[in-house]
Amino acid sequence: MFAQQVSTWLQRRGIHYSWVMAAVTFLTMLTMSAALGLPGVILQPLSHEFGWTNEQISSALALRFALYGLMGPFAAVLMERWGLRAVMCTGLALVGAGMALATLATQLWQLFILWGLMLGLGTGLTALVLGAVVANRWFTARRGLVIGLLTASSATGQLAFLPLAAWIIEHAGWRYAVIPIFAGSALVALLALCLVRNRPCDIGLAPLGEAFVPDSTPVAAAAMTFRTPFVALREASGNRTFWILFGTFFICGLSTNGLVQTHFVSLCADYGLTAVPAASVLAMMGAFDFFGTILSGWLSDRYDNRKLLFWYYGLRGLSLFWLPHSTFTLYGLSIFAMFYGLDWIATVPPTVKLAGASFGKERVGLVFGWIFAAHQIGAATAAYGAGLTRTLLLTYTPALYAAGGACLLASLAVMAMRRPSVAPVATVNPVSSAS
What we know:
Elements: H1 2-11, H2 18-50, H3 54-82, H4 84-101, H5 108-125, H6 128-138, H7 143-172, H8 179-195, H9 228-236, H10 240-255, H11 257-270, H12 275-300, H13 305-322, H14 330-342, H15 348-359, H16 364-393, H17 397-413, H18 430-434
Helix pairs in contact: 2-3, 2-4, 2-5, 2-6, 2-7, 2-8, 2-11, 3-4, 3-5, 3-6, 3-16, 4-5, 4-8, 6-7, 6-16, 7-12, 7-15, 9-16, 10-11, 10-15, 10-16, 10-17, 11-12, 11-16, 12-14, 12-15, 13-15, 13-17, 16-17
C-alpha cells in the first residue's frame, strides 16, 4: 500500500517508480559493499590481537567471497519464488547480525562462521545479481546507465565508509567500526520492507521505457526451482560467449575484491603506511570508480561492449604492474588510484549487457549469476593466495604481477566473442509509461 501511494505521488511529478527501486537497491548494495570491505581494514588489528597469520584470516575471507559468488544463481531463484523484498531483508539481517556478533569472537572458527558463512550468504543474496534483476525488470530505457549506477554502489561503499572505519579502528578499536554497518543494515532493511516490489505490474506500471497497457495481463514468470540454475548453466555452457565472460569475470574478481580490497591496507602497512592513509587511497579509488562505472554504463548503451572490456582489463593489468614500483608515496599511489579506480568494476555494465544480449532478458539473472560466481571464486582465490604469498614470501609483489598478467590475457580474450546484434529499444516518455 505504501509503495502504491509513493508511486501515485511520483507519477503526478513525472517520475517513474523504477527510480525508487533503483535507489533502494543502490543503498542495499552500498551497505553490502561496506560490509565486504571492512574485514580488509580489520585484518591487521585481528592479527595483532589474536596472533592469527594473514593466511589464516584470509582463508575465512576467501570463504566469504566464494559464498558471495556461489549464492548468485540461487539468489535469482529465491528472488523469483519469495520476492525481492524478502531476499533483500534476509540478506541485510544476516550481514548486520554477522558483523555485530563478530565483536564477541575469540576463536578463528567463530570468524569462519560470522565473516565467512553469514557474511558470505548475506551479501550473496544481494550481490550484483540483484542489480541485474532490478535493472532488467524495471528498466527498458536507461538500463545500461542503471546497471552502472547500481554497480558503482560498491565503490561508494568504500568511498563513504572505509576511511571512517580506519579512523574508528585507530582511535576506538576495531569492534566499534562495525557499528555503522549494523545500523546501516537495519535502516536499509526498513526501507526495503516499505518500498520494494517485485515487478512494475505490482503497482500498475510498465518498466521505464515501455508503454503501460491497462487491460493487458502480465505474462506469468516461469516456475523456478533450485534445479533451474543448473539447467540454465547446462544451456549456457554450450555458448562460447558464456565461457569467455565466465573466465574474464574470474580474472576480474581475482584482480579486485580478492586482491586489492582485501589486502591493500596490509600491503601499504608493509611500506610504512598506517591504516587511515591506506584506506583513504582505497576511498580515492572508490571516487574514481564511482564515476568510471557510471560512465561505463553510459558507454555500454552506445559502443561495442567487447572493446570497452578490452580497454578496461588492459588498463587494470598495467596499473597492477605499476603498483609495486609506485614507491607508495602520495604521488605514486594517486596515479595507481586513478588508473585502477576508473575501471575497478567498470567491467560489470558491459558484461551484463553482453550476457543479456546473448541469453535474453528472462534468463540474464540466472546466467549472470553463474558468471558472477566465477568473479567471486576468482576473488576467493586471490584473497587466500595473496595471503599465502605474504606469509611465505613476506611480500605481495608476486600476487600483483600474477593478477596484472591475468588482466592482460582477459583483455585479449574478450575480443574472441562475436558482437551480439540487438535491435535498439525505442524510448518512451517516462510520464506516459507511468500513466
